[in-house]
Write a structure and sequence with these properties.
The chain has 12 helices and 17 strands. By secondary structure, it is an alpha+beta fold. The chain has 4 domains: 72 residues, Alpha-Beta Plaits; 148 residues, no CATH class; 84 residues, Alpha-Beta Plaits (2-Layer Sandwich); 41 residues. Strands 1-2-5 form a 3-stranded antiparallel sheet, with no helix packed on it. Strands 6-7-8 form a 3-stranded parallel sheet. The chain has a 3-stranded antiparallel sheet with strand order 11-12-15. The protein starts with a strand and ends with a helix. The structure holds iron/sulfur cluster (2 copies). The site of one iron/sulfur cluster (SF4) has 14 residues, from helix 1 and helix 2.
Length: 351
């Protein structure tokens, strides 16, 4: 039994991909908030799935920022890559499970790749999965976020919303698993690489970046705001950073990383999933979010140096520390002397 994977016959929760497993204090609760069956629970500080409550509806799949949740009968990424038609209407009565299986990134990728995309939401408000209107609102929000993004980059593309009821055509539904290695390989996504535990970049983000690369020549703006749930752009304050390395250690996607000589921290916003763990974990609060982002940097995974330190050896503990002028003594030793200096003086006086 794999204790890091919980599943029913059709649904799987990969705990190793959950942000709450990455960092205990992370506050993501998107799956808990949207699940109509209250199937997610906290058990001894860890998020768990109550397999008896889960009804395999797939409503939570599209909200998870790290793709920790999946159903084995429908893969939204594979579905997008396998679509041949240029005119696409997504509907739970026709070709997909609940439209909540799609993320904002999925909606944007679809719009960029196709001539026409619409979502039929005519059944959502009355649906049994729409407890307290949460599912409908969440789908509508993701479509709105996708359209806001498409408008900001200056394309004429958008996701249309249809409210006219359509007849159920579910006979043809889910014949194909839509997640074959062939579809991913055609997109330049290395399936073997995906098996690597360190590779935590969600496939929906890779497909989004590929979609942007294909269409970027038609964008009016490539400098855009970071006011989207899936985008972030970081900076690090030289004055505040003490080079402890926690942000690099805890970043789930290796978006933050050290240079070979460990003197500087680099960042690729194309790998960042905006989880906020680095902001939260940084004790001196040296990491802040920028308001804008360059889509060329994002889509082509360009890295940039956020901070560079001069390392010197501390005269007290003989370990390297980021030197910012003055005495050759590290912050830890400095505060130790400040906190306990008097005690040592008293001890010396007694002797
Ligand atoms: S939405 Fe995903 S990352 Fe967030 S708590 Fe649920 S499983 Fe974890
Ligand atoms: S850089 Fe920060 S916000 Fe981005 S993925 Fe890494 S830890 Fe999360």
């Amino acid at each position: 039994m794999n204790i890091y994977r919980q599943h029913t016959d059709l649904f799987e929760f990969d705990l190793l991909k959950c942000l709450r497993t990455d960092y205990y204090h992370n506050t993501c609760s998107k799956c808990i908030d949207i699940c109509p069956e209250n199937a997610f629970i906290f058990d001894r500080g860890k998020l768990r799935l109550d397999e008896n409550r889960c009804k395999n509806c797939a409503v939570c799949v599209g909200v998870c920022p790290s793709e920790a949740l999946s159903v084995n009968f429908f893969n939204p990424n594979g579905f997008i890559l396998s679509l041949k038609e240029e005119k696409v209407t997504l509907s739970c009565k026709k070709n997909t499970p609940c439209l909540s299986v799609f993320s904002s990134q999925n909606f944007i990728s679809l719009a960029l790749r196709k001539d026409f995309v619409s979502c039929n939401l005519s059944h959502c408000e009355e649906c049994e999965l729409n407890k307290d209107n949460k599912t409908f609102e969440s789908i509508a929000q993701r479509i709105e976020e996708a359209n806001r993004f498409l408008a900001e980059i200056g394309t004429l593309k958008e996701i249309k919303v249809e409210a006219e009821e359509i007849k159920s055509e579910r006979r043809a539904l889910f014949k194909k698993l839509f997640n074959s290695a062939k579809e991913l390989a055609g997109e330049g996504i290395d399936v073997k690489e995906l098996a690597n535990v360190r590779n935590r970049i969600p496939i929906k983000n890779i497909i989004l970046k590929n979609s942007i690369k294909k269409e970027i020549q038609n964008f009016k703006n490539t400098q855009i705001s970071t006011d989207y749930s899936f985008l972030s752009n970081k900076e690090i304050s030289y004055d505040l950073c003490n080079n402890c390395g926690d942000c690099v250690k805890f970043c789930p996607t290796d978006a933050l990383f050290y240079s070979k000589d460990s003197t500087s921290i680099w960042y690729q916003n194309g790998k960042c999933i905006a989880c906020g763990i680095c902001n939260d974990i940084c004790e001196p609060k040296a990491i802040t979010n920028k308001d804008d982002l360059d889509l060329i940097e994002f889509a082509f995974d360009r890295g940039k140096e956020l901070i560079s330190h001069t390392l010197e050896i501390c005269n007290e503990c003989k370990t390297p520390f980021p030197y910012k002028g003055g005495e050759l003594i590290c912050e830890r030793c400095k505060s130790f002397v400040n906190d306990f200096g008097d005690i040592f003086k008293i001890a010396a006086d007694i002797e």
